[in-house]
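Methods, example record. To illustrate the input and output format used throughout this study, we show the complete record for Branched-chain amino acid transport system ATP-binding protein. The sequence lines were provided to the predictor; the line carrying structure tokens was produced by it.
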Amino acid sequence: MALLETINVMKVFGGLTAINKVNFQLEPGRIVSIIGPNGAGKTTFFNTLTGIYSPDGGEINFNGRSLVGLRPDQIAARGISRTFQNIRLFGEMSVVENILVGMHVHLRQSPLATLLHLRKFKAEEAEAENKAVKLMQYVGLRGVGNELAKNLPYGAQRRLEIARALAADPLLLLLDEPAAGMNPQETEDVTRLFRSIRDDRGITILLIEHDMRVVMNISEHICVMDYGEKIAEGTPAEIRSNPRVIEAYLGRGAVAGQHEEKLI
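The corresponding predicted structure is encoded as:
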């Protein structure tokens, strides 16, 4: 059974159809990429999956249950975490505090226990802080727990956002352009991290990425969107030489002039 399935999902803004009847299936334990030119509807699709936008039609099923109508926090509690295209950290909070924010959907203590600092609250707080430090180290950040998030280098901020998403213990991790702005070494390191997240933790990964080397290197399956529609899907080898995908990225001339043209 698919971990995630969308059936004829649509999202309309005024007269613009941002997502047009997208059918998509994601099997558990895979690393899958969604690619497409700017404005193809990729981030809108992510926002619809995570409850930021409500779909205007179609079905979204996760782990056998519908997500339609749920709030983002309810969807996170079901097992979907995400990062954002533009980093959204709490800059005035420490690295550990940012990771702790990601755990809120699973914290069990009542507001009263929190307010009165009861023994159960203190025990849960200590457990959460220990987990946050381990996640910080897991993503490659060491010795920076008390640093303000805003003071971290760009690549480290990207890693911190991933750690915060992992803090919710997701079944599915959505990454929106996670390698954007990174230098080649940072990109290589974070690609290894993605494989580790899947292999070590059993977390399924769905990512949006414009760096085609990252996409072709890490993806087991690729879905291509253009103008809000899914225009192709398949293995990296199939997508690399798909005429419709080449046309979407490079224009009709690339397809007409060179049948062997590839994306990378």
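Annotations derived from this record:
DSSP finds eleven helices and ten strands in the chain.
Residues 110-116 have pLDDT under 50 and may be disordered.
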